[in-house]
Amino acid sequence: MTTVTIIGAGNMARGIGTRWVGEVEQLQILAPTAEHATSLADELGGAATAGSADDPIGGAVVVLATPYEGAVDFVEKRGRDLTGKIVVDITNPIDWASFDRLVTPPDSSAAREIAARLPGDVAVVKAFNTTFAATLVNGAVSGQPLDVLVASDDEAAKQQVTTLVAAAGMRAIDAGPLRRAQQLEHLGFLHMALQDKLGSGFASAVKIVTP
Ligand SMILES: NC(=O)c1ccc[n+]([C@@H]2O[C@H](COP(=O)([O-])OP(=O)(O)OC[C@H]3O[C@@H](n4cnc5c(N)ncnc54)[C@H](OP(=O)(O)O)[C@@H]3O)[C@@H](O)[C@H]2O)c1
Fold it and tell me: Is 24 part of any domain?
């Protein structure tokens, strides 16, 4: 069993927290508004604890469940406290003003920008950016377990996140090295942009069907 810290106490923290709270030794929720963290930890129960975003980071695995800009801000402030940990970037770096592009440089990704701001011994894993928060609360859509696409340059870190994803009843798919985060972020954006056309209200899932 491992320990997990989730930075942020919003929709994705609820989704991932719901899936993982029964699978980990400790699930620490940290958010700038400590009451949001407390309220989510109370809702999740079990191994969940709460604190502010300035508190000591207890988890060996740290999920950045904040807007992209907040994740950059967090790693710039707390990067040294993440030494030796696995950082899971779940962000989709959407340009909300236009909803037409990503804010990251065309040859980069949120994961790459976040990794560039962290000490070299932090393992960055991209995951969960293509799964909507509400579907994570259920863990499945139309009876089918969620696919969670996982990318990293650190195979041991990728395996650890994969094990946690599988323990929580979802299917982890190895999406390759961290540079695949660029494609994953475009896929996450496309899935969001399709919601209007599908009328699916952010309750759909990206699923790879294999024979
Ligand atoms: N929602 C989805 O379905 C979905 C799906 C895939 C990926 N994502 C990605 O997941 C991330 C989180 O989305 P969400 O829907 O959970 O957002 P959300 O509900 O708005 O929650 C954001 C959380 O981030 C915290 N936060 C903001 N700035 C911060 C900072 N500088 N340092 C630490 N914490 C900070 C907020 O703190 P306070 O509570 O104090 O305000 C809040 O708890 C986004 O990057 C999004 O692109 C979302």
Answer: yes
